[in-house]
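worker-3 :: picked DUF4440 domain-containing protein
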Amino acid sequence: MFVKYLITFAVCLLFSLNCAGAQYAVDPRATVIDNEEHNIMRLIKQAMEYNWWSSESNYQVELSRFYTDPALDNILDSVKKYRVTSTDWYSLTFLENCHIVYKNGNTAVASAYLKDIDVITKNVQKGRGVFTLQKSQDGFWRIKDMDFYWCPDNNPLLDQEVTNY
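worker-3 :: tokens ->
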């Protein structure tokens, strides 16, 4: 009986050692995200989840941390128009996943999966954003252009609504 447990333990030990060794067979640099890519993904997350623009008095400064022209001008115009109307903002947007598609020098392109939740009805709309970023002269990345593709609830492959900024 003791021998059976000893053999089972030995087999499990050998199996786990082989699995641990397999991870070193893969090039560890292939999955490493450098600091600059991490900063780009964090910037997109902050930009998409920032929602104080609807009530904050200093929203232009905050938005300029995330965006540069032409996206910044379009967003500031949209915020000004929104603030004039007497309506409430009922949804929150969250970044689910982000991937750097291209990065070379001062230009980067990222694809992100987004989730927009209506806080009253709890309806969820998912979509994808494509972001073009530019590195500013101060060395920080800013979103220069973005396109959104929102999927309808029942058929995510058809009838995509495209929003350009």
